[in-house]
Amino acid sequence: QVQLVESGGGLVQAGGSLRLSCAASGRYGMAWFRQAPGKEREFVAAFSSSGLTTLYADSVKGRFAISRDNAKNTVYLQMNGLKPEDTAVYYCAARLGGSGRSPRDYDYWGQGTQVTVSS
Protein backbone atom coordinates (compact mmCIF):
# COMPACT_ATOMS: atom_id res chain seq x y z
CA GLN A 1 0.00 0.00 0.00
CA VAL A 2 1.29 3.41 -0.97
CA GLN A 3 1.73 5.77 1.96
CA LEU A 4 2.51 9.47 1.74
CA VAL A 5 3.29 11.54 4.82
CA GLU A 6 3.59 15.30 4.46
CA SER A 7 5.17 17.82 6.79
CA GLY A 8 6.46 21.37 6.82
CA GLY A 9 3.37 23.54 6.58
CA GLY A 10 2.72 26.51 8.81
CA LEU A 11 2.10 30.24 9.08
CA VAL A 12 4.47 32.65 7.36
CA GLN A 13 4.46 36.31 6.40
CA ALA A 14 4.25 37.40 2.80
CA GLY A 15 7.66 37.18 1.17
CA GLY A 16 8.75 34.36 3.45
CA SER A 17 9.71 30.77 2.69
CA LEU A 18 8.64 27.29 3.67
CA ARG A 19 9.76 23.82 2.65
CA LEU A 20 7.28 20.98 2.47
CA SER A 21 8.33 17.35 2.62
CA CYS A 22 6.53 14.22 1.48
CA ALA A 23 7.90 10.85 2.57
CA ALA A 24 6.69 8.01 0.37
CA SER A 25 6.68 4.26 0.96
CA GLY A 26 8.42 3.70 -2.37
CA ARG A 27 9.52 5.41 -5.55
CA TYR A 28 6.68 6.84 -7.64
CA GLY A 29 5.77 9.61 -10.01
CA MET A 30 5.23 12.51 -7.60
CA ALA A 31 3.53 15.89 -7.63
CA TRP A 32 2.25 18.66 -5.41
CA PHE A 33 -1.25 20.11 -5.53
CA ARG A 34 -3.05 22.64 -3.39
CA GLN A 35 -6.62 23.47 -2.50
CA ALA A 36 -7.85 26.77 -1.09
CA PRO A 37 -11.23 27.06 0.66
CA GLY A 38 -14.07 27.02 -1.83
CA LYS A 39 -11.77 26.26 -4.75
CA GLU A 40 -10.88 23.17 -6.73
CA ARG A 41 -7.66 21.32 -6.15
CA GLU A 42 -5.01 22.74 -8.46
CA PHE A 43 -1.67 21.60 -9.80
CA VAL A 44 1.47 23.15 -8.32
CA ALA A 45 4.51 21.14 -9.42
CA ALA A 46 5.57 17.71 -10.61
CA PHE A 47 8.37 15.73 -12.15
CA SER A 48 8.07 14.87 -15.81
CA SER A 49 7.47 11.29 -16.90
CA SER A 50 11.20 10.77 -17.32
CA GLY A 51 11.83 12.25 -13.89
CA LEU A 52 14.53 14.37 -15.45
CA THR A 53 12.65 17.65 -15.70
CA THR A 54 10.18 19.55 -13.59
CA LEU A 55 6.76 21.04 -14.33
CA TYR A 56 5.23 24.06 -12.62
CA ALA A 57 2.00 25.97 -12.60
CA ASP A 58 2.46 29.46 -14.03
CA SER A 59 1.39 30.97 -10.71
CA VAL A 60 4.40 29.49 -8.86
CA LYS A 61 7.05 29.35 -11.58
CA GLY A 62 10.23 31.06 -10.44
CA ARG A 63 9.19 30.97 -6.78
CA PHE A 64 8.67 27.27 -6.00
CA ALA A 65 11.00 24.34 -6.63
CA ILE A 66 10.26 20.63 -6.49
CA SER A 67 13.09 18.24 -5.70
CA ARG A 68 13.57 14.70 -4.51
CA ASP A 69 15.92 12.55 -2.48
CA ASN A 70 15.64 9.08 -4.00
CA ALA A 71 17.61 7.48 -1.17
CA LYS A 72 14.93 8.65 1.26
CA ASN A 73 11.94 8.32 -1.11
CA THR A 74 11.15 11.92 -0.19
CA VAL A 75 9.94 14.78 -2.35
CA TYR A 76 10.27 18.41 -1.35
CA LEU A 77 8.58 21.63 -2.31
CA GLN A 78 10.67 24.70 -1.57
CA MET A 79 8.42 27.74 -1.56
CA ASN A 80 9.99 31.20 -1.70
CA GLY A 81 8.44 34.62 -2.11
CA LEU A 82 5.18 33.39 -0.64
CA LYS A 83 2.05 35.44 -1.28
CA PRO A 84 -1.31 35.48 0.55
CA GLU A 85 -2.85 33.82 -2.51
CA ASP A 86 -0.60 30.80 -1.90
CA THR A 87 -2.63 30.05 1.24
CA ALA A 88 -4.09 26.55 0.88
CA VAL A 89 -3.86 22.96 2.01
CA TYR A 90 -0.97 21.41 0.10
CA TYR A 91 -1.13 17.76 -0.92
CA CYS A 92 1.50 15.48 -2.28
CA ALA A 93 0.31 12.91 -4.80
CA ALA A 94 1.77 9.77 -6.31
CA ARG A 95 1.22 7.53 -9.29
CA LEU A 96 2.92 4.35 -10.43
CA GLY A 97 5.20 6.01 -12.95
CA GLY A 98 4.61 8.82 -15.40
CA SER A 99 3.42 12.33 -14.75
CA GLY A 100 0.47 14.68 -15.10
CA ARG A 101 -1.05 18.02 -14.17
CA SER A 102 -4.53 16.86 -13.26
CA PRO A 103 -5.58 15.41 -9.90
CA ARG A 104 -7.17 12.59 -11.91
CA ASP A 105 -3.69 11.53 -13.04
CA TYR A 106 -2.74 10.50 -9.49
CA ASP A 107 -3.93 7.52 -7.49
CA TYR A 108 -2.52 8.20 -4.03
CA TRP A 109 -2.70 11.25 -1.82
CA GLY A 110 -1.18 12.48 1.42
CA GLN A 111 -3.25 13.89 4.26
CA GLY A 112 -2.43 17.49 3.37
CA THR A 113 -0.56 20.21 5.22
CA GLN A 114 -1.84 23.75 5.79
CA VAL A 115 0.13 26.70 4.47
CA THR A 116 -1.07 30.13 5.56
CA VAL A 117 0.56 33.32 4.27
CA SER A 118 -0.31 36.53 6.07
CA SER A 119 -0.17 39.92 4.39
What brief labels describe this structure?
7-stranded mixed β-sheet; 119 residues; mainly beta; single chain; 4-stranded antiparallel β-sheet
Give a quick summary of the entry.
This protein has 119 residues and is mainly β. The chain contains no helices and eleven strands.
What does this structure look like?
The protein is mainly β and 119 residues long. The protein is 0% helix and 50% strand. The chain contains no helices and eleven strands. The strands form two sheets. Strands 2, 4, 5, 6, 9, 10 and 11 form a seven-stranded mixed β-sheet that branches. Strands 1-3-8-7 form a four-stranded antiparallel β-sheet, with no helix packed on it. The chain is globular, with a radius of gyration of 13 Å. It starts with a strand and ends with a strand.
What string gives the helices and strands in order?
EEEEEEEEEEE
Query: What profile does the largest beta sheet have?
Result: 7 strands, mixed
**Number of distinct helices:** 0
**Overall helicity:** under 10%
Q: Low-confidence stretches at least 5 residues in length (pLDDT < 50)? A: none
Cα distance spanning the termini: 40 Å
Structural class assignment: mainly beta
Query: Shape from CA axes?
Result: globular
Strand content: over 45%
- Total beta strands: 11
Mean pLDDT reading: 94
Radius of gyration, taken over Cα atoms and rounded to an integer in Å: 13 Å
